[in-house]
Design a protein that fits this description.
The chain is of the alpha/beta class and 121 residues long. It is 35% helix and 17% strand. It is built from five helices and five strands; from the N terminus they run βαβαβαβαβα. Strands 3-4-5 form a three-stranded parallel beta sheet, with helices on both faces. It is globular and about 30 Å long.
């Protein structure tokens, strides 16, 4: 991943759990500039507060970011924050359910997600 790309994470689990998952998975937490959970943001998803906090911490405008999520609440939070969003089909929600959410795109594979995400050098 290019160093010019900043990565943040927002989960509806507690922030401690979110950070633990990122540490256990090959310590990818080191790649993240901002990590938040439902217990440390003003209002959890589907509200956009957590995404706005992540953007603020990373010094980014929400409109210049992309939120990748696997639930309708992810899409609703992104929409409320003014952020484009992409839904992924390898989470716990069905394609039918995600297709009703305000995602700009739905992806069924990581390769497809890579093709859709804006590329930065």
């Amino acid at each position: 991943m290019p160093k010019s790309v900043k990565i943040g994470a927002l989960t509806n689990a507690c922030v401690g759990y979110g950070k633990a998952v990122l540490k256990v998975n090959n310590n990818v937490i080191e790649m993240f500039s901002s990590v938040h959970g439902a217990d440390d943001v003003p209002a959890p998803k589907p509200f956009g507060d957590g995404l706005l906090l992540c953007c603020q911490e990373m010094g980014l405008d929400p409109a210049e970011c992309v939120y990748v999520g696997d639930s309708p609440t992810d899409a609703k939070a992104a929409e409320e924050a003014g952020m484009p969003s992409i839904g992924v089909l390898w989470g716990s929600n069905s394609e039918e359910r995600l297709s009703k959410a305000p995602f700009l795109h739905l992806c069924s594979t990581i390769s497809e997600l890579r093709e859709i995400l804006p590329q930065k050098e």
